[in-house]
Structure of UDP-3-O-acyl-N-acetylglucosamine deacetylase:
Amino acid sequence: MQQHTVAASIAQTGVGLHSGVNTHVRILPAEVGSGRYFVRVDLPDAPIIPAQVAAVSQTVLSTQLGKGEVSVRTVEHLLAALVGMGVDNARIEIDGAELPLLDGSARIWTESIAAVGLLSQPTNDSPLSPVIKEPIWIYEGDTFVAAIPAPETRFSYGIDFDLPAIGNQWHSWLLSAASFAAEIAPARTFGLLHQLEYLQKSGLIKGGSLENALVCGPDGWLNPPLRFANEPVRHKILDLVGDLSLVGNIPQAHFLAYKASHNLHIQLAQRILDLGR
Ligand SMILES: [Zn+2]
């Protein structure tokens, strides 16, 4: 068996979407079997927060991990980049409570990982990956996320918005590192113009801007061009990959979602983990 870590360290700096606070991140090689984990290097004793479902502390508009009073927010795009590029073990040092949004996608993380390359880590431990033998469904109203037994790992996602520039979009993608970098990682965060004021009044999206998120209004996109005609739904796949990475090894399955949220994604991740008990 082989696991992988980054072959050299990666550094990025930027503003967090919700906090508006600038943070510095370093991704460092980590020992075989250690998994992906965050280290709050700005706090006394540098507390560690594992990137695991059990550490999820909040799922409103982004995924937050925490342990006690210590947390790290908006982890999903970096985690998607790591799992999408095949990085099993990584020490992620951060000097604040929210990951930088960068350009709103996972492209910069993915390119940084590709630039340093991966280090193979031989191990005798086989991965503890639950097997999906029967469909798992999580739904709320008409929104759902599911894992279906399948011969390969595929993600299919649908969204539906009243705004004509988004409308009803579906995308289906077969998991592979090469296609992740090209097809999913570049898809950016998107927001709806009519919700921005409410979110800002609620103390959210303080770091959001037309540079790091696509914004859609009744007359179309405020900041075109899009990177893909269906960039929003591809971004939802990116979020789902990042959230499911909290299982550890994403099991082989067809993951299917419609109008889902971080909350539903995490509920599915928990149900998958429960299979292994
Ligand atoms: Zn996202």
